[in-house]
Amino acid sequence: MFDQHLICRDGFRNVVTETGNTEGFEMRIRIPYYRGVPLSVVDTLTVKVAGKTYTNPHIRFTVAGGSYMMSEMETVGDRRWNFDEAAILKIYTPGGLLYIDHLVELDIAIRAPYGIFHGSDKKVLVLEPDKHLCVSSKGGV
Prior knowledge:
By secondary structure, this protein is mostly beta strands.
């Protein structure tokens, strides 16, 4: 329904620890459904970039309600992903991505109460050297 709007153009960056290690990259996405949903129904995420495919075991999903590995999502029925909220996906891949333009592809499945909704989007995003997130080894940003 909203496929062309799933991948946000902002928020695409490498995630660098305070010790200088790049532990992965982040991107922002929007919901492919016409209303908000409990996190427990966000079923499957696949991100393709730089010739690699990243699936649920490598993805952390963050919204205002909290931050969870995709393997934990089915147990989080009391937190929501709202329609007007961009979720942050953190994809764990040592070394992150090269600082170039990347074709980023996203596939997502949501198990809504009366059907499964799929969304797909692809965009070319620029990962620039000054666009990175420094995270503390204590887990904070």
